[in-house]
Amino acid sequence: MSKMSREELVQHLTPPPGITMPPYPAKRDKIYRLALVMLVLGLLGEAIASLIHSHSLQFWMQGWISASLIVAGWTFLVWLKQWRWIVRSLVILGFVLWPLWPLGGWALSLAGSAIMAAKETHCFHFWAGKVIPWYSVTLGILLILHVTEPYLGLAWLGLAALWLSLVLGRAKLPLFEV
Q1: H/E segment holding residue 81
Q2: Closest CA to 59 of 11, 15, 100, 108
Q3: Residue at 75 is within a domain
Q4: Residue 161 confidence (pLDDT) above 80
Q5: Range 128-154 average pLDDT
Q6: Could you tell me if 135 and 151 are in contact, meaning their C-beta atoms sit under 8 angstroms apart?
Q7: pLDDT reported for residue 14
Q8: Total count of domains within the chain
Q9: Per the domain annotation, does 110 fall within a domain?
Q10: Membrane spanning segments where (predicted)?
Q11: Residue 54 sits in which domain range?
């Protein structure tokens, strides 16, 4: 991430003229960051469940990840309300589909998380945010192809590591308030 002063950060987060944002208190940013930590823990759990061949744990970890993404999607900072609603819709539908059609749930959840990662990269230049969307597409292909679990577990571990990098980068920034 490039170094930004507090003033540059505030200027960067200020919407351009004509775009009004709802208030974004620092507490909401804390919730967003906590949701991302929970996402990383869920991805680690999914990796472990895949590596130990625990299908029931994989099922519940997908629910954990989906719930974490709902909270993150509801609290992340983005100027354009259309983007907020696209991400929210994707992660909510991913959660709804999780028990009914897990593959479809993964597709929507991974898409929503990829948009969040790309937005983080656009704003704060995190290297992981450039990789996460493409990695998520690759992971989706692996899920469709029914790759064997040890390899899938390693793929989930890679996604967890990418998100951890992004979360650690975000933790170095001050809490946001708009």
Answers
A1: helix 81-97
A2: 100
A3: yes
A4: yes
A5: 95
A6: no
A7: 73
A8: 1
A9: yes
A10: 31-53, 59-80, 92-118, 124-145, 152-171
A11: 23-171
In a domain, 16, yes or no: no
69-90 pLDDT, tens digit per residue, is 999 999 988 877 888 899 999 9
Asked if the model's pLDDT at residue 64 lies above 70, the reply is: yes
Lowest mean pLDDT among 17-21, 31-35, 37-41, 83-87: 17-21
Q: Which helix (H) or strand (E) holds 45?
A: helix 26-51
The first and second tokens of residue 103, run together, are 């593959």
Instruction: Report CA 162 to chain centroid distance, whole Å.
Output: 10
H or E segment at 78?
none
In a domain, 177, yes or no: no
In angstroms, the CA 13 to CA 15 distance is: 6
